[in-house]
UniProtKB/TrEMBL annotation:
Belongs to the transposase mutator family. This is Mutator family transposase. One of its GO terms (molecular function) is DNA binding. It comes from Anaerococcus porci. PANTHER family: TRANSPOSASE FOR INSERTION SEQUENCE ELEMENT IS1081. It comes from the Bacteria. InterPro entries: Transposase_mutator. GO terms for biological process: DNA transposition. The lineage of its organism: Bacteria, Bacillati, Bacillota, Tissierellia, Tissierellales. Keywords: DNA recombination, DNA-binding, Transposable element, Transposition. Required for the transposition of the insertion element.
Amino acid sequence: MARTILSKIFNELMEKEIDEYLENTAYQRDPNRITYRNGYYERDYTTKIGTLTLRVPRTRDGKFSTEIFEKYQRNEKALLS
């Protein structure tokens, strides 16, 4: 149960983060938009309560990177260091 809640929190944070990066919400069209969403990729992230499977959003140009964890970070220990 705690893993499910934590996964939802991380996923929501990343959704807010990509909305800020794109300066638009999903499905909103703007002629001045630089790039668009391009789905998600799954990332396993290991914490003290277990492994979470997160849906990390991506952009068409590939330049978006979440600030929640480093690009190749896979566990919580690296976050605390």
